[in-house]
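Retro notes, item 3 of 5
We never archived the inputs for the fe (iii) ion complex last cycle. Fixing that now. Sequence and ligand:
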Amino acid sequence: MHGYFSEEKSVDTVNARMGRNIEPRIAEVMASLVKHLHAFARDVSLTQAEWELAIDFLTRTGQLCHDERQEFILLSDTLGFSMLVDAINNRRPAGATENTVFGPFHVAGAPIRQMGDTISLDGKGESCLFVGRVVDLDGRPVEGARIDVWSDNADGYYDVQQPDIQPKWNNRGIFITGPDGSYRFIGIKPVSYPIPDDGPVGQMLASLGRHPYRPAHTHYLVTAEGYQKLVTHTFVGDDAYLGSDTVFGVKSSLVAPFEKAGDGETIWRSHFDFVLARLDQTR
Ligand code: BEZ
Ligand code: FE
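Structure as it came back at the time:
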């Protein structure tokens, strides 16, 4: 019995209020959350005005959320929290392609396309042939892997951000590998772009002296039966924002080559192999 609240015993007092027969994981997570939250307020001697500012910030963050805008996930992304949770949950053996942040612009149900097809439907940007293989950790091809790809257009916007300007499914498609695990499609060399910065998260970044840009990247969701789901990007190596991605998504293993194709079909060629870990291959 801890009785009334006191500054010194605040954590114990709050956590002792939990019921006895609650779900153990809820008890564990909430007790730790209360502990760290109280430690944070103590650490910075949080003022009443700062507490009010935080409440207003979180209120406006929530008010901006709707089906097409998730300001809370953006907040998590820009605080590096999304990448931390992703890292904790995707510990893979060396050699497996690494995960990175999913982002808000994936749309389920993209058209399944044939190998060699073009995903860039607006005719903008510098064309690029994307090629490679989906393999396992022993280098064996993965047949039937589903490669769901999406990227911004040459103006730095996803189709869903410009539904009246871009064709539906612009720079999106799903490719399914055959027995040799290879893939091949034509898209564009992506460009860097700012994350939506007209809300509270943009204000937070500005107040921290941070820019809102992501380095140029192409998104992939690669799935195959018996293998861990891979959520990743490939990055363009010479991008000015590679070292300061506003959502901390860059990993050196994901920087892909973009070379002049020199064959007249496309301007660029980018080769990248996706290495999938089996469900039981963790570290
Ligand atoms: C993206 O790459 O699409 C993205 C990721 C995190 C926040 C905003 C955008
Ligand atoms: Fe993106």
